[in-house]
């Protein structure tokens, strides 16, 4: 596992939200999000801001179980007709979450849906939740998505950890299918040294590590674009990336490596 450090994650929650706000402030909030077709940009903004407030309530109350959303003040946010209010709501939610996480420290015991029941889980999770949805917003607005290499690499790491954990629980039927010995998937960022991942399928599941090795299929391209493909925010046949080898294996992974 990579670790940017608790302080960095807290800072990134605010920074990534500021970058998201910059995309949204002059955008059409009614525009459909291609990578989340059931959402508009307004829905996306309220999803991110609501997630921030929900996580903040969990950490602030040191909850031992999930906090019902109807018990989280202000979780719904302003509507599309109030873009300035929505912008302020996003900023306030990110700031409150970051401040609460800083005060709690990474080791504070709190509920989470994962095996990691610490405040540090929420600092990392909300960082990358915001990064990925910022990619959605950039795609919708037709602007370039950029992210610092160390943040992007950790976003990929975290996603692999989540999918591996979902497989290990046995409750995710799609993740359970990510097996089959003798097949490998290589992610290779062409613009960041050592930003490479090797996913190895086995009879009982998959494992992954940072490595440069020949694989059944390789996904190559700039790290931000590899991240977007891996999170299903950019098609694998995009001209921004290159797929070498068995493209069906990459499709097999992308269809099953889901959040639920």
TrEMBL record:
<protein>
    <recommendedName>
        <fullName>Maleylpyruvate isomerase family mycothiol-dependent enzyme</fullName>
    </recommendedName>
</protein>
<dbReference type="InterPro" id="IPR034660">
    <property type="entry name" value="DinB/YfiT-like"/>
</dbReference>
<feature type="domain" description="MDMPI C-terminal">
    <location>
        <begin position="150"/>
        <end position="251"/>
    </location>
</feature>
<feature type="domain" description="Mycothiol-dependent maleylpyruvate isomerase metal-binding">
    <location>
        <begin position="12"/>
        <end position="138"/>
    </location>
</feature>
<dbReference type="InterPro" id="IPR010872">
    <property type="entry name" value="MDMPI_C-term_domain"/>
</dbReference>
<dbReference type="Pfam" id="PF11716">
    <property type="entry name" value="MDMPI_N"/>
</dbReference>
<dbReference type="InterPro" id="IPR024344">
    <property type="entry name" value="MDMPI_metal-binding"/>
</dbReference>
<dbReference type="InterPro" id="IPR017517">
    <property type="entry name" value="Maleyloyr_isom"/>
</dbReference>
<dbReference type="Pfam" id="PF07398">
    <property type="entry name" value="MDMPI_C"/>
</dbReference>
């Amino acid at each position: 596992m990579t670790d940017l450090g608790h302080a960095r994650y807290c800072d990134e929650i605010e920074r990534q939200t500021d970058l998201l706000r910059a995309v949204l402030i002059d955008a059409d909030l009614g525009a459909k999000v291609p990578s989340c077709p059931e959402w508009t940009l307004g829905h996306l903004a309220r999803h991110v801001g609501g997630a921030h407030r929900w996580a903040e309530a969990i950490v602030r109350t040191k909850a031992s179980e999930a906090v019902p959303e109807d018990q989280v003040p202000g979780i719904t946010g302003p509507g599309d007709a109030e873009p300035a209010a929505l912008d302020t709501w996003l900023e306030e939610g990110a700031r409150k979450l970051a401040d609460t996480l800083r005060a709690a420290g990474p080791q504070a015991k709190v509920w989470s849906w994962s095996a990691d029941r610490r405040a540090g889980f929420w600092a990392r999770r909300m960082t990358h939740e915001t990064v990925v949805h910022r990619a959605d917003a950039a795609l919708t607005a037709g602007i370039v998505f950029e992210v610092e290499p160390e943040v992007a690499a950790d976003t990929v790491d975290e996603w692999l950890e989540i999918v591996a954990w979902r497989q290990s629980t046995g409750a995710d039927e799609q993740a359970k299918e990510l097996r089959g010995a003798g097949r490998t998937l290589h992610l290779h960022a062409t613009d960041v040294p050592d930003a490479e991942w090797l996913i190895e399928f086995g009879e009982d599941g998959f494992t992954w590590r940072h490595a440069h090795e020949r694989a059944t299929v390789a996904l190559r391209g700039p790290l931000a674009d590899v991240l977007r493909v891996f999170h299903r925010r950019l098609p694998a046949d995009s001209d921004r990336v290159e797929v070498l080898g068995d493209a069906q294996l990459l499709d097999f992974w992308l269809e099953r490596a889901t959040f639920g």
